[in-house]
Amino acid sequence: MNKLKYFFLKLFLFFVINKYILCKNVNSIGKVSPFIFIQAKLTELNVATPPYTVFNFATEVSSTQDIIEDHLKNKEKKAMRRFKQDLRNKREHSENILANLLSSSLQFFDLE
Asked: Where is the signal peptide (predicted)?
C-alpha cells in the first residue's frame, strides 16, 4: 500500500512540475513564435481566430452541396434508365401480345 501511495505522489508531482515548466515556457518573453506577426495583426484588428474559418466552412459546404447534387443526378439518371428499360420491356410485351392476338384473329377469320 505504501508503494502505491508513493507512486501516485510521484505521478502527481511529475504532472505539477511539467505544468509549471509548460506555463513558464509559454509566458517567457524571449520565446519568438514564427506566427507572431500574424497574431499581433489579428489582435490589433480585433479579429477572432477560430480554428475553422468561415471561408473553409463555405467551401466545404459548397463542395458538399456539389457532391450531393452529383449523387442525386446519378440516382436520377439511374432511375430514368430503369424507367426506360421497364417501358421498353412493357412495349415489347404488349407488341408480342398484340401480334399473337392479330395472328390468332387472322387464323380464326381465315378458317371461316
From this structure: 1-23
